[in-house]
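look at this one:
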Amino acid sequence: MPKTNRPAADTDFFVEPEGVGRFRYGRKTFGDRIRIRAEFLRLTGGNEDDLDLSTMAGLVAAHKVLCVEAPEGWVDLEVIDALDDERGLDGKLLRLYQLMVEKEGSFRRVPFSSGEGVGPAAGENDGVLGAPAVQPVAT
C-alpha cells in the first residue's frame, strides 16, 4: 500500500470504503487542524461561499494532512481524473470522507446525559449568585 509523508502511529485508524480499498489515517491533533485549514484555504483561494468547492476542498485537505497509507492511485486526491465517471469518483470520495469523519467522531467522549456529572451535588452552594425571585406587587 502506498505511503504518504505522515509517519504511522499507534493512534492511527483505518477506513475501507467499498470498491476503493483500505486507508490509514492519523488521529487529528491541534496542529493538524491548523494544517488542514491552511490547505483548505490554499485549495479554495479563500472562497468559502461555494458549497461544492468547500466540501471537496475540505475532503482533500483532511486527506492530505491525515493520510498515512492509501490504495494505489488514492494517495494524492488532487491528481485523480475528475472525469472518470465510470468509477463513481464523487460518491467514493464523499463516502471516504464520511467514514473518516464518523471514525474520528467515535473517539470523542460520550456527552453527559441531562444532569449527570455536571454542577454541584444536591444541596451544595456553587457560589453563583442569582437574581432574587420577582414577587408580584400587592394591590
